[in-house]
Amino acid sequence: MKLTHLVIAAAVGMSFSLSTNAADRGKAYVSNQDGGVSVIDLNTLTSTTDIDVKAEGPRGLAVSDDGKLLIVATRENGNISVIDTATNEVVKQIPVGKNPEFVRVRGNFAFVSYEPSAKGGPPPAPGSAATKEAESKDADDDKEPARIGIIDLKLGKKVREIVGGPETEGIEFSLDGKQLVITNEADNTVTVHNMKTGKLLKTIKTHEYGDRPRGVKVSPDGKTYVVTLEYGNKFMVMDKNFKVLRTVDTGVTPYGIAYDRKGERIFVAANKAKTLEVYDAKTFEKIKAIPTGNRCWHFSFTPDDKEILLACGKSDAVFVIDAEKLEVTKQIEDKKTPWGVVTYPKSVGSLDKPL
């Protein structure tokens, strides 16, 4: 009789454990330019802890496919910090190059954009005196191009590089993993490279459509790419062969961009418009502009697709948005200038997505 009770108790306990784990919505990681990385419990939508990344200026971040490692680009020391997500401790810092910014992970490799020629600070507006002065200087200087550093996470070192434009921003993989697509804000180009060799395959000039390409995402079916043009107040739509099909007007200074998981809607963070904008992915009609906060650049869906987390650096908060109602439901305080946000389990967003 006692043995039967023990078996029943064990079965109930196992069932409870499985149901608890099944209900676990996971975690979000938020990079803070004036701090480390904040961890948000997605079950409660509260910030639970801060990770010391052992360096200043965290920006781009990504989670490994198995969720065991968090990779964070740290601007001030030109490294990435590799963090064990079980302990929230930095296990290694790997040199990348000056001004590392965006991070994407594919398999055992981290792809990190860095900008040897970047001077820092906000860019001047097109046509301004500062822009003309910079263009004049660039005509005389040999401006060192930006690069994508490829880091072998098993070896713990940079193993090769792909050369981009003067200032490389967003990074995207083609659906088949054979091509790397990057946006180059300083020379207004999108470049396509062979993933294995780094060879430049194609250059798409954006100036006639808009300047400063920033975010880039491929659709879930791999048939289209979208690119935000920050100084065009548009996003650009290209087919799978990188032919420009059209542009779509957005709010002022669009930056982060992503499709939803089904590829039915496109989301755009319009920085100075202070909105997260939603578009129909087939007709490109605007569905809604959701009022948000100040300097909202990057966002991620939660793994169950129920909410969107939007990092708003100058509002000292991460905004929580209902993905169906398209309304802000909460603000999670973060006074360390939040820059970007990713989740585990991995979900779609402006910085990361499941592969």
Residue-averaged pLDDT = 90
What structural class do you assign from the helix and strand content? mainly beta
Radius of gyration over all CA atoms, rounded: 21 Å
What is the annotated CATH architecture of the largest domain?
Answer: 7 Propeller
The number of distinct β-strands equals 28
**Uncertain spans:** 6-20, 129-141
Strand order of the largest sheet: 3-2-1-28
Question: What's the number of structural domains?
Answer: 2
For the termini, the CA-CA separation is: 51 Å
Helix content: under 10%
Sheet having the most strands: 4 strands, antiparallel
**What is the H level of CATH, i.e. the homologous superfamily of the largest domain?**
YVTN repeat-like/Quinoprotein amine dehydrogenase
- β content, as a range? over 45%
Number of helices: 2
Secondary-structure element string: HEEEEEEEEEHEEEEEEEEEEEEEEEEEEE
* CATH T-level topology of the largest domain: Methylamine Dehydrogenase, Chain H
Identify the overall geometry.
Answer: globular
What's the CATH C level of the largest domain? Mainly Beta
What does this protein structure show overall?
- The protein is 10% helix and 50% strand.
- It has helices at 2-23, 129-140, and strands at residues 27-32, 37-41, 46-51, 58-63, 69-74, 79-84, 89-95, 100-106, 109-114, 147-152, 157-163, 168-173, 179-184, 189-194, 200-205, 211-218, 224-231, 234-239, 244-249, 254-259, 265-270, 275-280, 286-291, 296-301, 307-312, 317-322, 327-333, 338-344.
- The radius of gyration is 21 Å and the shape is globular.
- With 355 residues, the protein is mostly beta strands.
